[in-house]
Design a protein that fits this description.
alpha/beta; Arylsulfatase, C-terminal domain; 3 domains; ten-stranded mixed sheet; 8 helices; disordered N terminus
Length: 486
């Protein structure tokens, strides 16, 4: 393999709920994202780059394992006390890099579960990221809107006072714990739906938590904390190949950016949180530049799913949206089978190796396993990464084509092949009540020509019954065979 001897560092900058239309380089006129835009101007910006799913946990599972999450039960959006859903010892994108001699680290949002069975947050929490390919980990267990609201470094809660043990419940309330439902007067950000359990930092969350006072995070400092940890990992790993999975929380709810970012947009906390995430991405690039590592570092910037405006808190995101379109020209958003659910910002930068420009190649984060293996001169076993394609030539701009087809996953499945997008018939509501997102559910088959109808406005299934039959058969085959690469 051409690049195996160069051992380029790899950094994945992974936003949370960043929409196709949010960054400036994808058309936004209302949010300043100079660092994302710089990465795009110095790299390859994909117009058909996809997350594996329209929500967080399944996308992260698929990216890590190279297997579509819909193949496995228990890979939906997890509570904060869920057990690890990736079996220790399984091949992952991190273990592939580890096998190639890289120092590996994950910083930020994990949301793939921790431990086995009931978790004791007051001792060693195993297994976790360190059991599935990471040498180092500094994470939050789930999301900012779920307890426990603490950071975990290499399997231990950071800053925990053993005299104030943590107790977590996603079932019965914990006696003595104040909740947003019962004490709305204590909240500085009120929920719009759900999110009314334990109060931490003046914000009510999903789930109940008691104790761990000295270990609780402060939402305003989260981006600084994660970014600082990521920078320090790069600094201490600069003399050997490293792999960093930097999973930002922005702009996921609750959106509580640091005061220095408040008011940077006219869109309220969601827009300001995107500016904060852009800053974090910029700090990574600045560190690489300062250490003279940029020319030997492959940077991939993307998002775990599409955008959502109101996702559980009254933060004026809907009221102040104005004419900004987080989904860009696409239809839907987070939770949706329409394109905006899974088609996301996707940028690759490797100075001197990836020629700057734009690519229409279809690529997906589920392909990282096979592509990274190829990059480092490895071969995957037959059972490894069953849905991961080697799209390295497309990622490096050496080929204009990527995947032959892609399964898009939300509350059901859709398939894209070339310019055709087919959504199989499904039951369920047309829109999500809490988020007002068009989900893509319809009792009739849906077919769209993405070349002429990127917004999926006109269903042409009736006019192309042969295409519908072909794509349904392909979807059924991928579903039945348990793998999708040739």
């Amino acid at each position: 393999m051409l690049f195996a001897s160069t051992s380029p560092n790899i950094v994945i900058i992974y936003f949370d709920d960043l929409g196709y239309g949010d960054p400036g380089c994808y058309g936004s006129k209302h949010i300043a994202t100079p660092n994302i835009d710089r990465i795009a101007s110095e790299g390859l910006r994909f117009t058909s780059g996809y997350a594996p799913s329209a929500t967080c946990t399944p996308s992260r599972y698929a990216m890590m394992t190279g297997e579509y999450a819909w193949r496995q039960k228990g890979t939906g959006v997890l509570p904060g006390n869920a057990a690890l859903i990736i079996k220790p010892g399984r091949t992952t994108m991190a273990s592939i890099m580890q096998k190639a001699g890289y120092r590996t680290c994950v910083v930020g949002k994990w949301h793939l579960g921790l431990g086995e069975g009931s978790i004791d947050w007051n001792g060693g929490i195993k297994p976790g990221p360190n059991a599935v390919g990471f040498d180092e980990s500094f994470i939050m267990a789930a999301t900012g809107d779920r307890v426990p609201c603490v950071f975990v470094r290499d399997g231990r809660v950071v800053g925990l006072d053993p005299k104030d043990p943590i107790e977590v419940s996603y079932g019965k309330p914990i006696p003595g714990v104040l909740t947003g439902k019962d004490h709305p007067e204590l909240l500085r950000m009120k929920p719009s739906h759900g999110h009314d359990n334990s109060i931490v930092n003046g914000i009510s969350r999903i789930g109940f938590m008691k104790g761990g006072t000295s270990a609780l995070w402060k939402d305003e400092d989260m981006a600084d904390t994660f970014t600082g940890e990521a920078v320090k990992f790069i600094e201490r790993s600069k003399d050997k190949p490293f792999f960093l999975y930097f999973a930002l929380h922005d702009p996921h709810v609750p959106r509580v950016p640091h005061p220095r970012f408040v008011g940077k947009t006219n869109l309220g906390p969601r827009g300001d949180a995107i500016v904060q995430g852009d800053w974090a991405a910029g700090e990574i690039i600045k560190t690489l530049d300062t250490l003279k590592l940029s020319d030997n570092t492959l940077v991939i910037l993307s998002s775990d799913n599409g955008p959502v405006v109101d996702d559980g808190y009254q933060d004026d995101a809907v009221k102040r949206l104005g004419d900004h379109t987080p989904w860009g020209p696409l239809r839907g958003g987070k939770y949706s089978k329409f394109e905006a659910g899974t088609r996301v910002p996707f940028i690759v930068r490797w100075p001197g190796h990836v020629k700057p420009g734009t690519s229409e190649a279809v690529v997906c984060q589920v392909d990282f396993c096979a592509s990274f293996a190829s990059l480092t001169g490895q071969s995957l076993a037959q059972q490894d990464a069953p849905d991961s394609f080697n799209v390295l030539p497309a990622l490096l701009g050496e080929s204009k084509t990527g995947r032959d087809h892609l399964i898009e996953h939300a509350s059901g499945l859709a398939i894209r092949q070339g310019h055709w997008k087919y959504i199989e018939p499904s039951k369920g509501p047309k829109k999500s009540d809490p988020t007002n997102t068009e989900l893509g559910n319809d009792a009739q088959p849906q077919l769209y020509d993405l070349d002429t109808d990127i917004g999926e406005k006109t269903n042409i299934a009736a006019q192309h019954a042969d295409v519908v039959t072909k794509l349904q058969a392909m979807l059924d085959k991928v579903r039945a065979e348990g793998r999708s690469p040739p």
